[in-house]
Design goal:
Length: 135
């Protein structure tokens, strides 16, 4: 997933934490729901009292979609990568990738841990398998 610089607001704050190497999520002070994507208003109760908290980074693969790219010049096989939906332990679902894992090795229900990847100014959240965390 290519990182896009958010224009303003909660998206910008989320990205600022990612740039610092941290996965932080908003939690609603009224109903305690943890929220992603970043928002101004709690989608569950309408409260404006959203606060940023560090996330555990732990989650479970909910789904996997393998995308086939065009072969690069010199390559005989098309490039493949997987888009995953990860259910974070805090509750929200996040779309991401497991760049260090073969798409065939990604299974539904697999435990994963978040990691920040990319260059300064274009960092983004990816996941790695996290076998020792258990299910
Ligand atoms: Zn709420």
């Amino acid at each position: 997933m290519t990182a896009q610089l958010p224009a303003s607001g909660p998206d910008l704050e989320f990205q600022a934490h990612v740039e610092d190497g941290r996965l932080w999520l908003q939690t609603c002070a009224a109903c305690q729901t943890t929220i992603f994507m970043p928002r101004i208003i709690c989608p569950h109760c309408g409260s404006l009292r959203l606060a940023w908290h560090p996330a555990s980074g732990l989650g479970t693969v909910y789904s996997r979609t393998v995308l086939h790219g065009r072969p690069k010049p010199g390559d005989t096989r098309p490039s493949r990568h997987a888009l995953v939906l990860v259910d974070l332990d805090e509750g929200p679902r996040m779309m991401s990738r497991l760049p260090g894992t073969d798409p065939d090795d990604i299974t539904i229900g697999m435990r994963v841990k978040a990691r920040i990847e990319g260059e300064t100014g274009a960092r983004f959240v990816v996941f790695d398998p996290n076998a020792e965390a258990g299910a």
